[in-house]
Amino acid sequence: MKVAGIQRTSTIDFPGVLACVLFTRGCDTDCFYCHNRDLLGPGDCLPEGEVEAFLKKRRGLLDGVVVSGGEPLLQPDLEGFLAALKAMGYRVKLDTNGRQTQRVLALVEAGLCDYLAIDWKAPRQQYLQVCGVPPEQGYDATRETLCRLAEKGVPCEARTTLYPGLTAGALVELAGQLPPLPRYRLNFFRTPACARQRHLPLLERPFLTPEQVRAVEPQLRAVQPGLTF
Ligand code: SF4
């Protein structure tokens, strides 16, 4: 398991659970607004023994572990790692792009994951520009995952970053393309510290403010009553 960093405590990443956050290395997406660019490619990782020692030491002090990234589902030994976390008594939250529908469902079925946060990134027609991934591999696969989780009543949330260029109307439409989920979280845009040269014009576009989101809050709540921002 390639863990590039640990946030030792978080009260906000796992709803209702005091948790640490593990950042796995590697991502198969290339969002123009990414804040974790240093995690995307190869690079340093923590020794496995150090991660294990940290997790063992924090048992009883923390209730949960958030496995984030990057994209955790790129780790071939993810299942074994989550099983080890469960064996230590932790509640587990997985942050993922949700593109591996069958694998996500299998993790849930196996009881390896208590809560999922899945990125619902962009409207289908903008998906390639925003994420660098064709919509049939990104938007369609993620939508399928979220629909299946909603159908099964799995505790989960979809998350949308209000990236520059996303309008209030497109946001309402995007939220309405999913079934109502237990939680639908909006993250306001923050300018990343670094970006690819070709992404700079995209970052210069206007982005939604809290006031603009509040103006369409009734429409958003009508389709996603679990809205939070
Ligand atoms: S999925 Fe997350 S880590 Fe990967 S490029 Fe997008 S924002 Fe960055």
UniProtKB/TrEMBL annotation:
Cofactor needs: [4Fe-4S] cluster
Record key words, sorted: 4Fe-4S, Iron, Iron-sulfur, Lyase, Metal-binding, Pyruvate, S-adenosyl-L-methionine
Keyword Zinc: no
Pfam family, one: Radical_SAM
InterPro entries per UniProt: Aldolase_TIM, NrdG2, Organic_radical-activating, rSAM, rSAM_sf
A GO molecular function held by the record: 4 iron, 4 sulfur cluster binding
Annotated Gene3D superfamilies: Aldolase class I (3.20.20.70)
All residue ranges annotated as the Radical SAM core domain in the record: 13-227
Key word 4Fe-4S present: yes
UniProt protein name: Anaerobic ribonucleoside-triphosphate reductase activating protein
Taxonomic path: Bacteria, Bacillati, Bacillota, Clostridia, Eubacteriales
